[in-house]
Amino acid sequence: MSLSYRIAYVFLRNLYSYKRFVVPTFLVSLIEPLFYLVTFGVGMGAYMGAFGGQPYLNFLVPGVLASAAMMAASFECLYGTFVKIVHEKVYDSLVATPVSADEAVAGDIAWGSFRGLISGTLMMVVALFMGVAPASIWRAALLLVFMVFVGVLFGALAMIITSIAPSFDFFSYYTELVVTPMLFFSGVFFPLDNFPGWMKGVAQALPLTHAVAISRALFTGQSVTGLWWRILFLAVLAAAAFTVSIRMMRKRLIK
Amino acid sequence: MAVLVQASGLTKKYGDFAAVAGIDFEIREGECFGFLGPNGAGKTTTVRMIHCVSPITAGTLTVGGLASGINNRALKKITGVIPQEINLDIDLTVEENLLIFARFFDIRRREAKARIAELLRFAELEAKAGSKISELSTGMKRRLLIARALINRPRLIVADEPTTGLDPQARHLIWQRLRQLKTQGATLILTTQYMEEAQQLCDRIVVMHQGRILKEGIPGRLVEDEIGREVVEVRTPAEDDARILASLAGLDCAHERVGDTLYFYCREGHGLRQRLLDLDLPNMLNRPATLEDVFLKLTGRSLHE
After folding, report:
1. What is the CATH number of domain B228-288?
2. DSSP H or E stretch at residue B264
3. Which terminus in chain B has less CB density within 10 A, N or C?
C-alpha cells in the first residue's frame, strides 16, 4: 500500500470544500440528534421508567453517539466519495499528482471519520444541555477518540460499497438493508437481553452492537461484558475493511 | 537533444482489446511532440502511461531514465498534466484550486502564493482569483487547467486535447501559452485530432490509428512526402472519372475518388490545373496540401497510384 503524510493533503482539500457546507451540515448534525433524543429519549422515555436504575435518556445517549458517528462517516464515504469520483472527477486530477490513489481513499476515510466526530460531538453537546453527561471529563475525551475510530471503521466499510457502486441507487441496498436494520439490532434503543437466542447471535456479529456497548461503558463508567474482546473484534474488522477498501478502490480508480 | 521519453513495444490491453498495440517512440528534451489520431486511436491511453496514471501491460517506457509506473512519485513531481476532461475542483475557488494542487506537490504556502499570482497572470485569470469554477467560461476553465498543470514548474507537460470545445480566440490564446512554455524549455507532449493544432505547435508528430503508429515525422515534411504540395478537388459524378483521367495521362499526380469528389495529390499542381481548366469543369478547388490530407490518407482512405 502506498500511504504517506500526503493523506493530510486530501483531508485538507475536503476541509476547504467543507467551508461552503459548514452551516447546512451543522444544522443537520444538530437536528438529527435532537430528533432522536427528543422523540425517543424524552417522548418514549416517559413511558419506560428507569432503565437499570437510570432514566431512559441516559441509556439512549451513548448508543446514539456511536450510531451518529457511524451514520455520518458512512454517508460521507458513500455519497461524498462517489460524487468526488464520478461527478466532480476530483480523484482523476489527484492521481496525476504525487498523491497516490491509496492516499486519496485513506484521506476520504479520514474525512468521513472527522464528519463522524463532528456529529458525535454535537450530539454530546445536545445531551449535555439535556442533563446527560459522561461520567467524567477524561471519559468524554476517550469517547471522542472512540468516535474517530468508529468513523474509520464504518467509513472503510462504506468505501468498499462505493468501490463497486455503479450509481447512487446502489447505496440504498447498503443503507436500507444493512445500516438502518443494524441501528435496531445493536442495542441502541433497547437492551438486547430479551431477544431470542438466534437474534442475539446475529446482533453479536454486527459491529455497531459492540461499538454501542463500548460507547456505553465509556460514557457511564459501568462495566460491560467482554470489553476487550469487543475492542479487538472492532479493531480487526476496521483494519480488514480499511485494507480491502483501498485495494478495491484501486481497482476502480486505476485502469 | 537528449531523449526524455522512450517507449519500446509499449502495450496497453483492456481484456483482449489492445488500446495500444506495441508502439515505439522517442521524445526529446525541449521539443513539442504530438500524438495525432482519430477517437479511440490510443493517444490518451499512451500519454496516461507516460504520466504514470495507467499501468503498462507490456513493453518498456522510461521518462528521464526512470521506468514510468503508477507509484512513481518522482516522475509525477516533474510532470504537469493538462487533462482532456475539465476536472477542476468545483467545490473550490480558482485560487483554492491552485493552492490545494500546490499542497499535493509539497509546495509551501508562501512559495505557492507567489507562483499562483504568477500563473493567474500567465493564464489571464487575475480578475477571477476568488471566483467559483461555475462562473468561468470554458476558455477560462481550460486556461486554469494549464495554470494548475504548471504549479510544480514541470519539466514535462502533457496536454491531452487541450483546446477541445473552444472558440477560435480562446484556442489561439491557449496555443500561444503552450508555445511560450516550450520556449521556456519545457518538453511538451500533445494529443490532438485537430491537424491545425499539430501544425501550429509540434516539432514532430506520430499519426496513431487503432493502437499503432502509422507514420512519424515533422508535420510539414510529412505532408510533402505523403501527399505532395497541392491538392485539387473536383466535384463531379463518378461516371466522369474515366474521361477526366484519360485527359491527364502523363501527369505525375495520384488520385482518389471519395464520395462525390475526385481528389488529385501533386508535387506541383500547375500542369494539372491547366488541363483541368481545358476540360471546363464547373466545380474545382485548388488548395495547398495539409496534415489533414495525410491524416485521412493514413487512417481511412485508400490511395490509388
Report:
1. 3.30.70.860
2. strand B261-266
3. C
Residues contacting residue A211 through CB under 8 Å, at least 6 positions apart = A66, A70, A150, A153, A186, A234
Q: In chain B, which residue's Cα lies nearest the Cα of A102?
A: B71
pTM for the full predicted model: 0.89
Residues of chain B with CATH 3.30.70.860: 228-288
Q: Is B232 helix (H, G, I), strand (E, B) or coil?
A: strand
Q: In chain B, which residues fall in CATH 3.40.50.300?
A: 3-222
Largest CA distance in chain B: 75
Is A2 a member of any domain?
no
Q: Are B161 and B193 in contact (CB under 8 A)?
A: yes
Disruptive mutation site among B50, B76, B91, B94 for chain A (greatest number of A CBs within 10 Å): B91
- Considering its fold, how many domains does chain A have in total? 1
CA distance B271 to chain A (A): 54
All three cell numbers of A152: 474509520
Nearest Cα neighbor of B22 from B61, B53, B50 is: B61
pLDDT tens string B242-263: 888 887 777 778 888 888 888 8
- B182-186 contact pairs (CB < 8 A, 24+): B182/B30, B182/B31, B182/B32, B185/B30, B186/B30, B186/B80, B186/B154, B186/B155, B186/B156, B186/B157
Whether chain B has a CB inside 8 Å of the CB on A100: the answer is yes
Residue-number span of the structural domain to which A72 is assigned: 7-253
A19 within domain boundaries = yes
Write the CATH number of the domain with boundaries B3-222. Answer: 3.40.50.300
Tally of helices (H runs) and strands (E runs) in chain B:
11, 14
C-alpha of B269 from chain center: 29
**Residues B152, B78 contacting (CB under 8 angstroms):** yes
Q: Which residues in chain A are closer than 8 Å to B55, comparing Cβ atoms? A: 254
| ipTM score for this prediction | 0.88
Q: Could you report the per-residue pLDDT of B212-231, keeping only the tens digit for each?
A: 999 999 988 888 888 888 88
pLDDT at B79 > cutoff 80: yes
Are the C-beta atoms of B80 and B150 separated by less than 8 Å?
A: yes
In this structure, how many other beta carbons lie within 10 angstroms of the beta carbon of residue A235? 12
Q: Which residue of A has its CA nearest to B98?
A: A13
